[in-house]
Design goal:
The complex is a heterodimer of chains A (about 270) and B (about 625). Chain A contains eight helices and eight strands. With about 270 residues, chain A is of the alpha/beta class. Chain A has two domains: about 190 residues, HUPs (Rossmann fold, 3-Layer(aba) Sandwich); about 50 residues, no CATH class. Chain A has a six-stranded mixed sheet with strand order 3-2-1-4-6-5. In chain A, helix 1 packs across helix 2 and helix 6 runs antiparallel to helix 7. Chain B has about 625 residues and is α/β, with parallel strands linked by helices. Chain B has four domains: about 210 residues, Rossmann fold; about 80 residues, Translation factors (Elongation Factor Tu (Ef-tu), domain 3, Beta Barrel), CATH 2.40.30; about 100 residues, Translation factors (Elongation Factor Tu (Ef-tu), domain 3, Beta Barrel), CATH 2.40.30.10; about 190 residues, P-loop containing nucleotide triphosphate hydrolases (Rossmann fold). Chain B contains 17 helices and 29 strands. In chain B, strand 19 and strand 20 form a beta hairpin. The longest helix of chain B is centred in the last third of the chain and has 20 residues. In chain B, about 45% of the residues are buried. The chains are: A alpha/beta (about 270), B alpha/beta (about 625). Chains A and B meet through helix 1, helix 2 and helix 6 of A and helix 3, strand 2, helix 5, strand 9 and strand 23 of B.
Amino acid sequence: MSDLDALESESVFILREAFNRIDKLAMLWSVGKDSNVMIWLARKAFFGRVPFPVIHVDTSYKLPEMIEFRDRMAKEWGLDLIVSRNEAALAAGMSHQQGRVTCCTALKTEGLKSVIAKHGFTGVIAGIRRDEEGTRAKERVFSPRGSDAAWNFRDQPPELWSHYNLDPPPGTHLRVHPLLHWTELDVWRYIRRENIPVVSLYFAADGRRYRSLGCAPCTQSIASHAANVDDIIAELGATTVAERSGRAQDRESEGAFEELRANGYM
Amino acid sequence: MTATAQAHSRPALPIVIAGHVDHGKSTLTGRLLQETGSLTEGKVEAVREMCRRRGMPFEWSFVTDALQAERDQGITIDTSRVRFRWRGRPYILVDAPGHKEFLKNMVTGAAAAEAAILVVDVKEGLSEQTRRHAYVLQLLGIRYIAVAVNKLDAVDYRQAAFDAVRGDIEAYFAEIGLSAAAIVPVSARQGDGIVCLSRRAGWYDGPTLIEAIDRFPDPILPSEGPLRLPVQDVYKFDDRRIVVGRIESGRLRIGDQLVFLPGARRARIKSIESWNTTPTLSAAAGQPVGITLDEDIFVERGQVASHADTPPATATRLALRAFSFSAVPLRAGESFVLRLATAEYPVTIESIDGIVQIDALGRQAADSVGRHDIADLTVTSPEPIVLDDGAAALRRGVLMRFAEIAAAFVINMPLPAPLPVSDPLPANDRNLTPTRSAIAAAEREQAFGHAGGVIWFTGLSGAGKSTLATALERGLFELGYHATLLDGDAMRQGLNADLGFSPAERTENVRRIGEVARILAESGQVAIVACISPIRADREHIKSALGESFLEIYVKAGIETCRARDPKGLYGRALRGEIAGFTGISAPYEEPAAPALEIDTDQLAPPEATRRLVALVESRLGRARAIQAAS
């Protein structure tokens, strides 16, 4: 069994636990590389299907290539796609100019909370990874969220030996993290092995590419000549720059991202 | 394949950093990451900025203490997992909190590890919390441990200070059954002894910390053991019914016959299902599989599939060593849901057999188990629990109180021998010294007015065994006999609740009933057994142990009569194929060669049959015989 097989095995096990135990289950799909891998793993777990709805929280500021990719792949993969927008906040003119944390909270966190409330989801699968960022390194695989989707990181329940917290109290929901144990490099190696489609923005054009995808105003491309998956894998083997270094909301101030996540950000 | 790509396919080794709060775990973690070149650009600068803002010197622990509250209080609250690479091998460093308050997080982190670094402050030595962490590592089954004796800089790298702590560690580890792969003097703050040895500790000639962990072997998946496949779910997305689960040990192939416990239903593997992979004929430990079966048998989450000749053990009573997470004490008599692999069983704590004393290493009697206690418990379940020594997932699990994980446990081995039961070893090979009763059979006979014995009713289901046995018990009781009914179905709800209906389990069922009957007979009572006991050899085995006091009664009735009576509705189900291995339909019945009495219930009404039975007992065990014997 290769290391990629072992990663895949654990993710498949987690997805099947979630599907077995959570009645109202959905998956978050950011359209980024990680959540494409997650959809792929769901098809592995459920023999070609994704047997629950897939949510895209659309801030309206996403890069246009992402929206095109989303609509094309949703059709090809037969996804039950729910697109959620915080229309009220957008109508009131919400943008990153009101402050990045404020904007992320309104358009992403609140957008997510409203779709959870509207459909009564009790479990939401999200493609976060421990190696992305310090607070995510402390996450549980099945992470209970309070009634306001808040993450009580000071008092997380025990979780061991594939025994997860599967039964959220009424009025709360579970975040399920099947990619928690993967690294950025693992994700790309798996994309190569399985030939998983990704948005073209990841590949270099005119000497720049995106390493992490988000909203256009707050996501920077990096200098790179990696034009295909092999190039990206070679580049990651040599870099010492953090993956999310191009994501402005992470570095607004010390603890800004922690605050976002404690309040329910993915 | 390039050299880089090959290096990637080595599995990452997860290592937990354990030890007392403030002994320097997070500092060591930060150092390890820095010295192995695993920190991303700007991370060190970011940490320097956090420290400057707090007006403190550079703090390595801020690398993993990602939460503001952790940095503000200077302690790790929750476990962090970070990757690093050393000489091409990937590691996952699990930084676990050392503060007593967050022991549940330490256990959560440590349970994910295959190896450990135990950090001990050279000035503080083996504190209670350090011992507790070492004990938790032992409980979690972590065998590869390197000890980092930290803060050598604070004792001027004196060898005597290190040697004293090393001696304590070796002694304590030996007592709890651990062994340290290496005990290394380090200064995490100064970066000594981690990747490079310190010149200031020139007296030390052992490995550096990184060399010590580099020697730990890769985790091995138990693919050579017997097959254990806990069923996770059953999918019916289309016309296929796919049974899914992760193979915990062993391997399976298309065509293999599987038995699903509990229930003991059997079927063969028709196909191994997958998506976007090349078709496969077999699968092994660690793989999540989907299989279809050749027969439409009932399968559900929680059952364990194995090969028919190597089934796992089952038990309704277990001895556990448990670690409590719960602020609410666990008490004897309290009920929980026990999770083992994918199964959930209702259990009750029968007894608390002691709390492990971390310092004195004894067990202390207690009537409740508090938070962070390590305790030995006996639990019972009305349902057979499928467990196994070889597959970790079937040896350790959690106790749930409603939705909360209240405790983690490891089943205390050795387990009852798995079925099928092989021939018992000769008693003198097992170092047994049975103590016999000091009361002679004749004394009991004198006191009770009759001899002890076993009246064994055998015959098909529906032949009338239970009817005659209960009538005989009543008849003997009214004559002043000490008589007790042992009904096969009743025994299967209690003593034999862990047994199914495979040939081996049926033999074991009869053997156990025979043992109970023998004990009753030797205590001077008359044990009346009603049990199909279809195999002649099984009955002969009991007869050979009891001799003259074993009276075999063959209750005979034609299969047509039995089917027509069918008091339990079993024949109907057996004929519909719902019960496999049903005696007289799909499993053999071997008639007794020379029963003490044969009763044909097609011919003889119950009152007359009972009269004959009482007469037989009177003549063979009764007062008349007792008086004869005395004279």
